[in-house]
Amino acid sequence: MAPGTAPAPPLSEASPPVAPTPAALVFPTFDTALFEAVRAGRHRKVVLQVPAGLVRNAHDLAATLREAAGVPVVVATRPCFGACDFPSLDEAQGADAAVVLGHAPIPNVRRNRVTYFVEMRDPLGDPETLAATVAAATVPRRLGLVVSVQHLDLAPRLADALRARGFEVAVGSGDRRLAYPGQALGCNYTSAEAVADVVDAFLFLGTGRFHPLGLAFAVDRPVWSLDPRQGTLEPPIDRATLVAKRQLLVASCREAKRFGLLVSSFPGQDRSAMALALQRRARERGLEAELLVFDRLDARDLVGRDLDAYVNTACPRIALDDAGLYERPMLTPPEFLMLLGELPLAPYRFDTYH
Ligand code: SF4
User: Fold this and answer.
1) Cα separation of 354 and 346, whole Å?
2) Ligand 1 pocket check for 187: Cβ under 6 Å
3) Which residue ranges form the domains of the chain, and what is each CATH number?
4) What pTM was estimated for this model as a whole?
């Protein structure tokens, strides 16, 4: 366990999938190898799901897949935020396979049909130049490397280049929700937690602020961000301010009496067992707690409810990243336990989805 990390609360989390689960086939890029595999699968119909950033290209991608693999393709209009929210069987009726772009499989999430994961690997970035950029900044010498799936191919070469410049580089293995060592997942940074004891900072290799923000919550170490495409190095996010805001939010719920416990039906976001455990705890303290179920959460569906606050057991990032969309405070499960006095306010505990 990382220093500064509180012990896990005694909650039941999602159970591992029950075998057999339909196959997961993994491809680095959207190209011939994928098309041949889909063709060989002799599917009746394939549903294509893309992340929000690729929605504009979805119809061209579908046309390419249809032609190259010789199979009917439908496009899921709901983008995938992770490998946790596949189209349900009802959403894409008759499709006996899914092609999901931009994500690695989550090993302990049950699939509802054969699924082709296209990780959209991006090998670009010069490790020597990137290592020189890191060496020129005031980055601690003992580093933990955490990487978005798209840039995993670059990670070993970057680690070697950093070591050649005198850095100690640790790459941790995470738990059963992560497919690769060193992998960043927005709800699970156990690959970082595994090496937090032996590093003084983390280096995130990837783009955007989504993972640096999650890492800042999950590990009590500075997180530097290295963009392999732009070659830029961003300094750490101010963790103390982030955590203080969440602690203030917990404190603001002290008078709350009526809670909505949010539960998603997506296969990789369903923590209904945890929600029931939280409901029992709340009721033992004389609080009202209602389970509210959905697949993808829409803020409009929470408007006008006679509730004081929410506890989100679905994707952990909803409460942390999207709080401004909701008219009532929204806590993570560990924050709710802080409110109930079952966990201390500090050290802060990230809502790791196992
Ligand atoms: S639960 Fe949230 S953070 Fe985790 S994989 Fe799904 S969308 Fe991403």
Assistant:
1) 21
2) yes
3) 24-118 (3.40.50.11840), 127-237 (3.40.50.11850), 241-340 (3.40.50.11860)
4) 0.93
